[in-house]
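TA notes. Do not distribute before section.
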Amino acid sequence: MQRNPYLEDRDKKNNASANLPARLNILLGIALTLMIALIVQLAFLTIKQGAYYQSEVNRNDETIEKGNTPRGMFYDATGRVIVGNKAQAAVTFTRGTSVTSSTMRGIATKLSKFMTIDTKRLSERSKVDFYLANKSNNEKITKIITKKYKNDKLSLTTEQINMYEVRYVQKHDLAKNVDQNAAMIFQRMSGAYTLSTTFIKESDVTNTELAEIGERLSEFPGIKLGTSWSRQYPEGNEFKTLVGTVTNEATGLPEDRLHTLLAQGYSQNEPVGNSSLEKDYESILKGSASQTLVTTGSGGQIKSSQIKYNGQAGDNVKLTINARFQSAVQKILEDNLPGGDVEGAYATVINPYTGGIYAMAGVDRNHETGQKTADPLGNINHAIVMGSVIKPAVLATGFQKGVISQNNTVLNDQAIKIQGTPAITSYWNQAGTPTPIDAETALERSSNTYFVQLGMKIGGQTYSPGSALGLRPDAFQTLRNGLGQFGLGTKTGVDIDGETAGYRGATTGEAQGKYLYETFGQYDSYTTLQLARYVSVIANGGYLVAPHIVGALTQGQPNSDKQKTVWTATPKVQGQVKLDAGEWDTIENGMNRVANGSDAWNTGGADMHKLIPKVHAKTGTAETVTNGNQTYTESMVAYTPGQPFAIAMAIPGMNNYLDGTNGKISAKIIDAYWQYVEAKPNSK
């Protein structure tokens, strides 16, 4: 019998219809089971955990918001304010816990209509971020990026999408027309981390800006009208170079310390010490920030704030500098500086017993334009070939090595003729005629050839006319060690960054002959502060004392103008030069004769001779080349016996030889000391 296809198809449909209720029942059973499970879960959450979730909805977060406080001030040794603070109106922004870039963009855009800020430091990246903070712009660029990479079958993370968005905006220069004033405000706001306060504008806020913004504070969440402090210099702006500078909202954090400062909690445009003492004592000057307890709701909105700690202004730094004396020394240098090729002048006045620096003044001079710039730190970072001022240290080394004795210091001043080196003579004995002189006369006349012969003896050779140089291999090091006892050629350890140790020339090969010039200060270079420490050793009887400029740290007291001293500097002895009393007498008598002697070839000069009380001194002259011309450095070290006073000064690049400028300037500085620092003693 043939099969009936119709009947077979009908049977299949009937069988399928018969199975439908069974499948439907299974699906309904699954749905019913899931519904029951959902009801049970809802009941559990409502009954058992309802209170917990209700508390989460009503939860308040408490966070500490930090504010800013005035920086500590700088005082001079007499209590005068050198660097103070000037309060001024400011506009600040405190970033809430849920503030987004889009929110900040909206605030910045509105705020820019009522306030103008400097846009010089607006970065290209901030312009891009400002552009993308616009929701419409962001969605459009995101769509382009995701579509492009979706077609490439790549899956991107949120960070990757943001990176490609920035690149896209930069490539197509889409941010070129953004409102730069608004973008700069946005950049400053972005520099704040959660619940920190940063300055939007910390200076030059106009009365109109204050009024316009004050009327609309409710429209600018996180914006406040506050106070900032800028540095002021009651004793003159020249102290800015010595003490250093502080960044402001325009300059931002220093690039070389940016990441470190951000890690320490600074915001992008928070003031911070940028150089010299302001930088070195940042942690002390910064003080402690005010603390406000901020309560925020679950949505991030600020519900309340309560001041928990008003903050503490930074501790103050009291210097050993005498402000009036410092200004006087600076003016003396500027007013008496010669012209021509002169590169500047530097002077340090120090207490030889404590190391405290009374004044450290300097002038840098552009020999092409004649322009003078205050350069007090040139005393620590400008190394100079100083000349004969180092001769007392060479004499001391000779005593210590036993090549000369205090009972017989006589040597001939004569022309020094060593094979392979130019002849060396003293300025007062150009003919080189052998002339017996003792050590004191050699200091008074500044005999170069006396100290060349003394130096050769230290190096293991007695001078013989026309002989070859035959020094011991360690001669250079031996002499430098002798000078190093007095601090020459080593850093002083002064409490200011940027000090140099000077320059030490080569000692081998053709440079071996330079040893002869080292003996009278015509080779290695030193800083003026090194000279001040060096002459202090002679003044205090042989102790190498570290110089310092910070004398104490003080702390302001609540409801009082008085300062509490929290730290005081004490003398730091770095070494000792050991000589017999008679050997010290020889050095001191020679320096006394320099400043007060009557020898026909006396080097002290009339200005130094007139000083009362009398000083001991040593002059120096070094031959140099400046601007292609033969020039000279004139230098001077001096001290007043028994008094807490010593001075070192140098003038590099002079065109005239032995014109007495060093004596004239030194005498004026010494007179100023007795006028401004302490009363002149009666003794002569």
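Switch to the second chain here.
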Amino acid sequence: MSKSSIDKALTPEAFQNLKVKTPPSNTAGFRGLKAATSHAVKYIKPGNILKITQNINQKGGFDCPGCAWPDPDDDRSALGEYCENGLKAMAEEMQKTVIGREFFAENSVDELSEWSDFEIGKSGRLAEPMYLPKGATHYQPISWEGAFAKVGNHLNSLSHPDEAVFYTSGRTTNEAAFLYQLFVREFGTSNLPDCSNMCHEASGSALSETLGIGKGSVTLEDLYKAELVMVIGQNPATNHPRMLSALEKTKKNGGKIVAINPLPEAGLMKFTDPQNPVKMLTGGTKLSDVFVPITINGDVAFFKALLLKLLEREEEKGGVFDKTFIKEYTNGYDDFIADLKTFDFQDCLEVSGVSKEIFEKVFELVFNKKKIIICWAMGLTQHENAVDNIRELVNLLLLKGSIGKEGAGTCPVRGHSNVQGDRTVGIWESAPQAFLDKIEAKYGFKPSTKHGYSVIDAIKAMYEKKAKVFFGLGGNFISAVPDTAYSAQALANCNLTVHVSTKLNRSHLVTGKEALILPCLGRAEKDFQKTGVQTQSVENSMGVVSSTTGVLEPCSDALMSEVAVVCEIANATLKAQSKINWLAYKDDYNLVRDDIAEVVNGFENYNTKLQQPSGFYLPNGARIRKFKTKTGKANFTINKLPNWKLKEAELIMMTIRSHDQFNTTIYGMDDRYRGVFNERRVIFMNREDMKLRSLKEYDVVNLKSEYNGVIREANNFKVVGYDIPKNCCATYFPETNVLVPLDSFAHTAKTPASKSVRVTVEKV
């Protein structure tokens, strides 16, 4: 009997051989160099390793498909502009093993679902289009023409375009993303959910409201010149390791660093640059001046405590707030101060879980510095009050005048390499009317103005059978989304699921009645079209658009670029009634960029600008104190403390990545910087919480979450005692995504609350 889609979506419960060691106090260095090298040698063809390391993130080379951390504008390291996890990403995407019809003939969908995510990902590069017919147990080969026709027939058989969902991963380039949203809008829907819905959507919502742009305001140079950098709710050593080099420059130039996080991540404590022989021999650089072990979701409370103390000093002596900046550039100051005074300092500090001693250290730094940068990631954005978290950070920066000047500002650190660029060029379920008007003026059709499905809306629509076709341009949808069991059933309810991918992942095993896997080129591979090898472009986390050109020969002759796939599907679906010559775009990507230049603000003379070796900066009003908000000024906001209390025996759980992981991609089974090896089914607990529950190291437990009367379960996890605040715990995703309620999400942003899940722990 075939396994259910829910069973296929859940990671196998089998244990490996768990070993726990004392977490290191230093990162990168010799161990990082060794780990990166071993992955490259094991998984990449020997002849490709040198080409990759010489060209990744270099001017004229290709952009790393991992994180979106920016490259230096000026000279770049001759030893390579990459990190340990960047090379792991290349080892994953440029695997020497290639899989096609023989692999799928030998392995059924049910059998593959029994593999771990690590085994699935390392099975090899996809070599040809594959099709899973209704009721079949194995994928089988299909021609590209047959695949395009099948997608077109399914889409055209829908009773309304809104019955289709078009998802986008953050690895998609600007060119592919622009064409994709253009096709979707000409098809007649705005259903364009993307991975930003699950990570930094709350950042975009908060920053747009307060500063007039949903992006950060700083550059890499600003980090070097900051007097104080606050790093909140993020783990740079794993998720964007090259950020540590920038923080090292902050320290070298006299700046201070405060790390605020429930876990004492090693990368924020000390960093040894593996490209600096002197640092390798002398032991590296201490980064954090103060580590703040905040309770999960205690951030608004902690910042309110800081704001109250700053207000007290301002009213005592003056000169604490930048009154000139506040008067000229901000709105809502008086209402904000009046609301702030309704809170009690001691109550806020208690809710934050931070000691008075540590608080005072942070306060003195904030009080004495004028150039402040606040960096954050999903530790702040994946809560029901996530938008409040970011708005409160902005309140602090506005009071200090730390917006729109050198060495100061906002720095949301994006995850996937082009997630910010995708939004910029139109991947948005609620695009501004001005953008839609430009589409209409350029192409002659009227795009839908209806608010499309975000990720959570799309899952509900598929579950309720209101959406019947799912198309994923990259990504591992089922392993990224919350409420795994519900989401798996949602996908199973579809008539057709389609994934454009470089390699196998679990989403290919959780299918609709029919399914297609369409293999595409990797970022490092040459993209041959009629006019020659094509160049594409991406936007990094700080708003710089740069070129990316592959250097390796494609691993299979049957691969297509994402641009070509989109063009062919648009042509097969829209046919003669389309107002656009889709096939012309795939022959020459310069034509795509010419269109982007006409439609998207900031891309004028796109093809010319892209020839600049370091790329070019997009306009950023917050960077120059031109705040394009409804008031025309930067807005103070009023934010509440999170309104929840744990029941007896409950813990608040946050999902996290291991060091051998990027998003849903599992590079290996170790979490070196947390001292965990050979296992992912673990729960990190405060040792006092363990004692209260009569638990000891390595005990096996089952986890349950309850939300609005619905109980969700995840079984077989081993307990690991850790330095995490009381009443808090942490687990890896996607293993515990099944516990994250679909209807628990950030207000106004719908980012899943994966960092604040209430759970109980039951010993097996």
